[in-house]
């Protein structure tokens, strides 16, 4: 697959944001690597399956999700995005405010159509 542009990478982040807000598991399945490591700003860690299960079962629901200060960097074989996240989530029935900085890592992976870039890692760090 061709090397993505910064703009393309940021479009993937926007698609991920929209899918999270909609609770769209099908869209998320297409964006997330099978080998996903998702570290929340609370230090909780999820795999792709456990993260999708939380969203599917309603244990985690994004009510508001704002991404800002996004910066993309394309490397050989990977793309990085850093930014800020402000969100309102419903976690286990309780509404919580989340404010963090994050790093996401996108990598090319084989797919039915040849290859596709997917989210391989997410690391969130809480803001004070």
List the helices and strands and how they pair.
Blueprint: H1 6-22, H2 25-31, E1 32-39, E2 45-47, H3 48-57, E3 60-75, E4 78-91, E5 94-111, E6 114-126
Parallel strand pairs: 1-6
Antiparallel strand pairs: 1-2, 3-4, 4-5, 5-6
Structure overview:
By secondary structure, the protein is of the alpha+beta class. 27% of the residues lie in helices and 56% in strands. The model has no long low-confidence stretch (mean pLDDT 95). The chain has helices spanning 6-22, 25-31, 48-57; strands spanning 32-39, 45-47, 60-75, 78-91, 94-111, 114-126. The protein is built from 3 helices and 6 strands. It has a 6-stranded mixed β-sheet with strand order 2-1-6-5-4-3. The longest helix has 17 residues, at 6-22.
Brief overview:
By secondary structure, the protein is α+β, with helices and mostly antiparallel strands.
Q: Give the strand tally.
A: 6
In round numbers, the mean pLDDT is: 95
- Output the structural class: alpha+beta
Shape: globular
- From the alpha carbons, calculate the radius of gyration and give it in angstroms: 14 Å
With strands numbered from the N-terminus, the spatial order across the biggest sheet is: 2-1-6-5-4-3
Distance between the termini: 40 Å
Helix content: 25-40%
> Which runs of at least 5 residues are low in confidence (pLDDT < 50)?
none
Q: Tell me the series of helices and strands, N- to C-terminal.
A: HHEEHEEEE
| Binned strand content | over 45%
Count, helices:
3
Largest sheet, in brief, is: 6 strands, mixed
